[in-house]
Specification:
This protein is of the alpha+beta class. It contains three helices and eleven strands, in the order βββββββββαααββ. The strands form three sheets. Strands 2-9-8-4-5 form a five-stranded mixed sheet, with no helix packed on it. A four-stranded antiparallel sheet has the order 1-3-7-6, with no helix packed on it. The chain has a two-stranded antiparallel ribbon with strand order 10-11. Strand 4 and strand 5 form a beta hairpin. The longest helix has 13 residues. It is elongated.
């Protein structure tokens, strides 16, 4: 078995192609699964048969940068599940994950949120901006944030305030309270 690519960002969500070796090929009525076995997490993904020697799956998100074992498992009705092949796979931190971490640690800090300066420091984004935006959103969902984390940051003057509807004074000017 050969995996392509052999790595994925921590937030996953990329297509992984599995090329079966001649000795890995089995009958048509077999269902294949991939088990990603990390130091603290295991992920089991289904596969889609593309051809007689090619499968596809979507890489799962993972909790840390590390090399994991990927087991190609096969299942056939009436028989136990068996391991067909094994390969290493790497979960890595990419620029979208770096950007998500930067945004999370900069919440509430107006100077730090000058995102164009951050992008200038880290170089231009690979691909188009919409793609980077989607990847940052995915990465953000996989960040480990403390329970008390808030997008407004730690500025307590904004927390818990209820803003009422603006009122007009006797001259018709809107006043905010």
């Amino acid at each position: 078995m050969k995996l392509n690519p052999q790595q994925a960002p921590l937030y996953g969500d990329c297509v992984v192609t599995v090329l079966l070796a001649e000795e890995d090929k089995v009958e048509d009525d077999v269902v294949f699964y991939l088990v990603f076995s990390g130091s603290t997490l295991y992920h089991c993904t289904s596969t889609r048969k593309v051809s007689g020697d090619t499968l596809e799956t979507i890489a799962p998100g993972h909790d840390c940068c590390e090399t994991v074992k990927v087991l190609l498992c096969a299942s056939k009705e009436g028989l136990p599940v068996f391991v067909v092949a094994e390969e290493d796979f790497h979960f890595i931190q990419d620029e979208a994950y770096d950007a998500a971490q930067f945004l999370a640690t900069s919440a509430g800090n107006q100077q730090a949120l000058n995102f164009t300066r951050f992008l200038d420091r880290s170089g231009p984004p690979s691909g188009d901006v919409n793609s980077l935006d989607e990847k940052v959103a995915l990465a953000f969902r996989h960040l480990k944030l403390p329970a008390e984390w808030n997008v407004l940051g730690t500025d307590q003057t904004l927390h818990g305030k209820h803003f009422s509807e603006p009122q007009r004074d006797k001259f018709g000017v809107l006043k905010f309270q």
